[in-house]
Design a protein that fits this description.
Number of strands: 5
Order of helices and strands: EEEHEE
Largest sheet: 3 strands, antiparallel
Oligomer: single chain
């Protein structure tokens, strides 16, 4: 059983949120740099919750390719 990592960002990132595919547009030139560095250190993620005050990201489970 793997445990999920959680990253909570106390910032309004709705401007960079794409509702159609439930992703943050982190490659946008205006995306906050300090938030981008935290997200890159965190790794692959899914958005668990987002509103005008907070974003909660959950790490994606790593695929096990060994059998």
């Amino acid at each position: 059983m793997t445990s999920e990592k959680i990253l909570v960002i106390n910032k309004n990132l709705l401007y960079w949120y794409n509702e159609l595919d439930n992703n943050l547009e982190i490659n946008s030139p205006n995306f906050p740099k300090y938030v981008l560095s935290k997200i890159k250190l965190f790794g692959e993620f899914e958005i668990d919750y987002i509103d005008a005050r907070i974003v909660k990201l959950i790490s994606k489970p790593k695929e096990n390719t060994e059998r």
